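User: Hey, my collaborator sent me this sequence without any context and asked if I could get a structure. I don't really work with proteins. Can you help?
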Amino acid sequence: MIRIDDDVFNVGIVSVTRKASQKKELIGTTLDLRKHYDVEGTYYDYEVTFNVKGMDSNEYSRLYEKLTTPVEYYEVEMPYNQTTITFKANLSVGSDTLIYNYKNAKKWSSLKVIFEALEPQKVVLE
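Assistant: No problem. I've predicted the 3D structure and written it out in C-alpha cell form, which is a compact way to encode the shape of the chain:
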C-alpha cells in the first residue's frame, strides 16, 4: 500500500531504494586549505518499483493516472527506518512495460518511479 496526496493505492512494493544527499555550497577555503561549506540540509529521494502482478487493472490505471498527472508536486509517504516519512516530491522518472496485449485486455509490469524531495527533510540546527 502507498499513499500519494490523499489517495491510498492497494499495491505491493518490490523494492525501495532510498538515497540521501546533502545540499551544500562552498563558501571559501581558509589559509590551512580547509574548505568551508554552507549546508542547507539532507534530502531523501526514493526509487520505488511496484509489484503489479495480480493487481486489479482498474487500480493500476488509477495509480498510473495519479503518477502522470501534471502537478507541481506530490505529497508522498515512504518507509523511513522503522516508521514512515511524508514529504513533498517531484516525480522525476516513471516507466512501465506492456507485457500482455490481447483483444481488449492489457497487462502492465515493472512500474518504477523516482520521487525527488522538494525540501530537505533534515536541516542544520543553528
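In plain terms: The longest strand covers residues 83-102. You can pass these C-alpha cells on to your collaborator as they are.
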